[in-house]
Structures are given as C-alpha cells and as structure tokens.
Fold:
Amino acid sequence: MKKLLIIISISFLLLNCTSSKIVRQSFEYQIIINKQDSLSFLLCEMYGSDQGVRLSKGFSNKMKLVQKVDSFNFDRMILFIKKNGFPRRELLGKNYDRECVKMAFFSILLHNPHRLVNEKEYFNLLLNEKKEKAIAILLCYNIR
Structure:
C-alpha cells in the first residue's frame, strides 16, 4: 500500500510538471499572438485615420485637418519603428495580409515625403531599417 501511494505521488508529480510546461508554452504562444494582434490593430488605426480624414465631408478647413492627421500619424509611425522595427510578416504574423496593416506605412510615407527630405533623422532611421533587413536576408541566404 505504501509503494502504491509513492507511485501515485510520483506519477502525479510528473504529470503536473509536464502539464505546467504545456501551459507555459501555450501562454508564451498566446503572448506572441496578442502582440501581433495589438500591433496590427495599431497599424489599422493609423491607416483608418489616414484614409478616413481624406474621405470625410463637411469640414471647412479640411486640408489643415488632413495635414495635422498626417503629421500625427507620421510621429506614431516613427515611434512604432523605433520600438518594433518596420512592419513585416515575422512581426505581425497572419495579420500582415490585411490591407490596413500592409498599407498603413505606405500611405503615411506617401503623405509625408517632405518630412523624410527635410528631417534627416527620419530618413536615416528608415534607411537603416532597410539596410538591416537587407543584411538579414543576405545572411539567411548564406546560411542555407
């Protein structure tokens, strides 16, 4: 009877350790998915405000509002890049295929070319992001 109790205790302990590992892995996976969804939602917000202000009607000084939204979105884009890097499939997962996610930065950059030309800090930031991505791609091809 004592041996049976010990065997049951050890079995319970082993099963508990294994299941906690599975729960931890599931939790880590959920964190990744939540981050991808949060970042994708942020990009969709930027794209929505960029396009929404252009399609809206009834404003007396619409161009001033458009310029303010463009500037605000550009600043948000720069913060996004500094914190997360440029949007890419590895960062956003399956959400990368959504129009609002893919088009957010393109639209913001399209409406703010003057900031890239006049503010070298931002030009260099985007150039470095591009160089790092190109280097990473080259390294991947060399490893294979």
About this structure: The chain has one domain: 2-143. The chain is about 85% helix and 0% strand. The radius of gyration is 24 Å. Residues 2-143 form one domain.
